[in-house]
Amino acid sequence: MIESGVPITRGLETAAVVAGNRVITRAVRGVLAEVMRGATLSAQLAHTGEFPAVVTRLVAAGETTGSLDRMLGQAARLYDRDVEYTVKRLTTALEPILTLGLSVVVGLVVLALYLPIFGLVRRR
Fold first, then answer.
1. Which of 79, 78, 80, 72 has its CA nearest to residue 8?
2. How confident is the model at residue 120 (pLDDT cuts 50, 70, 90)?
3. In b/e form, how buried is each residue of 19-28, taking b as 16+ CB within 10 angstroms?
4. pTM for the whole thing?
């Protein structure tokens, strides 16, 4: 949004609305209030304690060099990579669990089919 010329305050308002997380929404609204009073974005992001240090350092570098839009883009790419890595780890961990669960279900079905047959053989 900043790259498109949207003011930082409007961008923060939008971010607070679309965050989908009450903690982050509250933190962004607090940051917005302080930025409107003249505080720096990086200092307020760090002050909340809800954002990783790498993000606050990227924002600080962007504020200092005048390339905040590029640094926020870099932070977004870092978050995307972290989410992708976390999802990959989760699916990798779920594969053996799902295989084991399916094996148990198949074993129960086999037992349910063969136990009556074995019972008939014993009666004779």
1. 72
2. confident
3. eeeeeeeebb
4. 0.67
Please spell the DSSP secondary structure of 48-83, one letter per residue: HS-S-HHHHHHHHHHHHHT-HHHHHHHHHHHHHHHH
Q: Exposed e or buried b for every residue in 55-93, given b needs 16+ CB within 10 A?
A: bbebbbebbeeeebeebbebbeeeeeeeeeeeeeeeeee
What residue ranges define each of the domains in the chain, with the CATH number in brackets? 8-123 (1.20.81)
pLDDT tens for residues 48-61? 989 889 999 999 99
Structure tokens belonging to residue 81: 């990579």
Each residue of 60-97: pLDDT tens digit?
999 999 888 899 899 999 989 999 999 999 999 999 99
Residue 11, classed as helix, strand or coil, is: helix
Beta-carbon contacts of residue 89 (< 8 Å; ≥ 6 apart): none
